[in-house]
Write a structure and sequence with these properties.
globular, 2 strands, mainly alpha
């Protein structure tokens, strides 16, 4: 991509340009929990109930999804302690299965998955933040989009400004999420203590359960647990990663699994299954029935929960782009770091236009159906890559070595989910597959061997150099892996 300027003649090592290790164990746990617990558990957990057919089976599905996610997380802890680069899925695919699957994951992530995902989370933030001001009417769509755009901009600015500030905000918002979940769990447990068992009397009635719907229940549950892998995106910024990556991943998943099960039990203690299935915002329905005095606070708590998920997602995803640029599969500008703030400024700013575009479209929930194919397919490939890597490089040190049964079970589950989505929603899955494969010509024409005319390349390099000066960024000067 041409010659890149460096920050030279650095008088002291502390002024060198690199990403500092500022993510402690507490911050890593907050990042994982904060990105897993978004709006789903508060707004619409009915997908599992609807497709499982009964209260008891739905609770088993929630537990099974937590255990299955833990299997995947243990495999990622193995990968994160043996492959010490940041970048998560991308870097693991690159190191285990090669450059092509890694690039296709990167392409799908930044063309479709990340903008759509962040836009949906941020729209939920805007909607639940402003909705109380217009109650009992719905908030105008334009007002929601303006609040949403403001929230996205604020998150990007925070991430560009300071890693420490961003991590501290994430920790505070995660603590607030735990308080929010506690506001649901405690009244539910009190209701159970007072004898509210009516909704559990036929909890294992399987008369409405069909085998073709059960995989969809697992899909809904696994989607709610998504986010445990974000710690692996920031490996190079974690203090003592060989210890803290496994601890943070396992601890966060155990906490979230317990909270999800208790939250669902609380919902069932107060609301009937019919009320849950007919509600678009289960937490609000729960609050209206359990304690009307603070029911108006719930939408604000949901909005802040979404803000935390948005903050954590953008913080982690920018590191994937940073890692890809450093590996030569993306323009070098995006592997640069602000010389004063020590943040990956270009990688963060690149995500903003596409998220704005998705928000402006507004009705983008359908895009998340495309997301299922790429998400589960590449997660399965990454854990498959772990098994391949183990076979090819048995001599490599592995500080946290898990039995191969964990990645094997998780890989089979991921490919099963992909196969199920092809059966249950062939149109959206095919479109998601097509978007992913659209990266093939980009890879062969630009990445593997540049076939762009020299005049275009020189203009592109000139533009990148000007942007580098404008943003005050430079290449990393200290190797952190």
């Amino acid at each position: 991509m041409g010659r890149c300027m460096k920050k030279s003649d650095v008088p002291e090592a502390k002024e060198a340009v690199f990403l500092r290790r500022k993510i402690t164990l507490t911050r890593a746990i907050a990042l994982a929990i904060g990105t897993m617990v978004g709006s789903g558990i508060f707004v619409s957990p009915k997908g599992v109930l609807q497709n499982s057919g009964s209260v008891g089976v739905s609770l088993i599905v929630w537990l099974a999804c937590g255990i299955l996610s833990l299997f995947g997380a243990l495999a990622y802890a193995d990968l994160g302690t043996s492959i010490t680069k940041s970048g998560g899925h991308y870097i693991y695919l690159l190191e285990t299965l090669g450059p092509l699957p890694a690039f296709l994951r990167l392409w799908a992530e930044f063309v479709m998955i990340r903008p759509a995902n962040m836009a949906v989370v941020s729209l939920a933030f805007g909607r639940y933040l402003i909705e109380p001001l217009f109650a009992p009417c719905h908030a105008p769509a334009l007002a929601v989009k303006l609040i949403t755009a403001t929230g996205i901009t604020l998150v990007i600015v925070l991430n560009c400004w300071s890693v420490t500030l961003t991590a501290n905000i994430q920790t505070a918002l995660t603590a607030l999420k735990m308080v929010s979940i506690g506001l649901i769990i405690v009244p539910g447990m009190i209701a159970l203590g007072n004898g509210s068992y009516e909704n559990f009397q036929e909890d294992f009635d399987t008369s409405t359960l069909t085998l073709d719907k059960l995989p969809l229940a697992f899909y809904s549950g696994m989607f709610a647990y998504g986010g445990w892998f974000y710690v692996n995106f920031v490996t190079e910024e974690i203090v003592n990663p060989k210890r803290n990556i496994p601890l943070s991943i396992v601890a966060s998943l155990i906490v979230v699994t317990v909270c999800y099960i208790l939250t669902n039990v609380s919902y069932y203690a107060v609301l009937t299954p019919q009320e849950i299935l007919s509600s678009e915002a289960v937490a609000v329905s729960f609050a209206n029935k359990a304690f009307k005095s603070i029911s108006s606070v719930i939408p604000i708590l949901v909005a802040l929960s979404c803000f935390g998920a948005l903050n954590g997602g953008i913080f982690a995803a920018s590191r994937m782009l940073f890692a890809a640029a450093r590996e030569g599969q993306w323009p070098a500008l995006f592997s640069m770091i602000h010389i004063q703030r020590h943040t990956p400024l270009p990688a963060l700013l690149l995500m903003l236009p596409l998220i704005y575009l998705m928000v402006s479209i507004g009705d983008i929930y359908g895009l998340l159906n495309f997301y299922s194919f790429s998400r589960w397919f590449f997660l399965g490939l990454a854990t498959l890559g772990l098994m391949v890597h183990r076979y090819r490089h048995p001599e490599l040190p592995r500080p946290f070595k898990v039995p191969l049964v964990f990645p094997l079970v998780f890989t089979i589950a991921c490919f099963f989910i992909v196969g199920t989505s092809l059966y249950s929603d062939p149109v959206n899955t095919s479109i998601g597959c097509a978007v992913t494969l659209s990266g093939l010509p980009v890879y062969y024409l630009v990445v593997q061997k540049t076939r762009i005319p020299g005049c275009c390349t020189s203009k592109f390099n000139s533009m990148m150099a000007k942007l580098q000066i404008l943003m005050k960024v430079a290449l990393q000067e200290v190797q952190t892996y």
